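sanity check this fold:
=====
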Amino acid sequence: MPGAASSRDMVRIVLADSNYSDRLLLVDALANSGIRGIKVVETLHQIETYVSKRLTDLVACDIDTGGGDAIDLVRQVRYGSIGRNPFTICLVLSSHPSEEIVKSASDAGADGVLRKPYSRERLVSTLLKIIHRRPKFVVSSDYIGPNRRLRSRETEVADDLIDAPNTLLEKVQGTFNFESTLRKIGIAAIRVNENKIRANIRRLNVLVQRLVTNRSCDLSEGAVRNGFAEIADLALETEQRIRKQGSLARVEDKRTLIACRGLQAAAEQMFSGAFEGASERSMGVIVETLALMDGWVDARITEPPLKGIASPIPST
């Protein structure tokens, strides 16, 4: 196992901030905390490239960085769409962190929003807190990231919290081991995937029951379309996540896949023609899918976690 000095040499941080003085202060604050290995880039595309090729410990990007959407970048890291480590520490930087920016960054799963210009003391204090006292991860139907008790949006939350591997802390403390860390990331990612499936199923059940219960009411076209749009997105994601499990998927997940396809078909009907006719056809598919889902939701979300996820898995 490498010592503290060699581990720190393995630190991988990528920073995008067009303001030279702010960038220099952040790099200096990290260096004074014993953290080096910082790559400075100019665009979000360059961050994506860096993260995709390396096991990155920390991503810090200014909200105004060109070449993409900084908030969406954080979300893609959390959902595993970019990079090898969905638990990478993610910081959003902003000279004008409005309430909307802070909320959007939090909802995307960022570890924090840093206001510029920085004061050295506040910056170091914030960085040390994020590195050494990072919250566990929570998974809901619309969120993956550090646990925050106050969630303003309607959502369905999975039951248990997840210890997020903290590669930066391991390297600072000299406990980092590449193969061991990859296994920990893999195990935690499996738990995230399973919790996301459960949270999605709970949310799908709420949406479907709501549409069926209000079938005879005067739901607006917008409300119905929004409901079906969320159903379509969650059903597709759930199907993809079950397939991602591969050999770990349960036999019961076959019913889940069939139900998800039925829900996606209902959504396709909804958006395929005139509202009245499409809505009626979609509701017909929904009702048929409900028959298949009878007893499935409660059984699926109350099952114990996947066997074996507490044991190391082979690295690839």
